[in-house]
Structure prediction request, 220 residues.
Amino acid sequence: MRAQKKKKYYYLQLQTLQEIKGFESKPSLLMHVCCGVCASYVALYLSEYFNLTLYYNNDNIYPEEEYNRRYQELVRLIDEYNSSYKTDIRIIRTEYDGINYQKRLEPLAEEPEKGKRCLLCYTLRMKQAMQYASDNNFDYFTTVMTISRQKDSEVLNKVGERLALLFPKVKYFYSDFKKDNGLLKTAQFSNKYDLYRQQYCGCYYSYNDYLLRKERKNEQ
Ligand code: SF4
Prediction:
């Protein structure tokens, strides 16, 4: 039943892309993007259908150097695409505000990864991005995060669906980018462009979990 539900998002993705093929010109899509690896296959795939803009607003990432590093890798990748594949993908980056973001997550500090803290984290970033899409008259909005092995596409699509009620001018683009070998294609692009692969999701808590894992491994 759950597997069936998950397929629903992939079918909705394909259905929208099929509809777009009949449009006279490409509609605009603002996609929230968390890093170059996650964007690698998805951005190229979607650029065939949309005028694509990537929105990098990831105040969850700790520390700031890591935020900058992931952003720089994204810029490097998209510059390569725009020159090699003649795409015209744009990137927008927001001013980093990690301190205030962490304060928002703090009450859920004890939550495990994929729990309530992560739900809040997806919602905050997707809401900010969708607000931008609405204010700037984008036709569609989505997040790249359904490509991530660590993230549940059903949870993300439900967040998107709820946010769409707040921003009725923008259509939410349902997705499950893991389908159709999305992870394999992502790995191939990441290897081809030698992209930096982070070892933790992003926030202070996931960073500490990563340090603990590393410490335990070293002790073995
Ligand atoms: S683990 Fe990832 S999704 Fe969850 S709160 Fe931290 S940065 Fe956000």
Q: What stands out?
A: Residues 2-219 form a domain with the Rossmann fold fold (CATH 3.40.50.620). The mean pLDDT is 96. The longest helix spans residues 64-84. Residues 60, 105, 113, 117-118, 121, 201-203, 205-206 surround iron/sulfur cluster (CB under 6 Å).
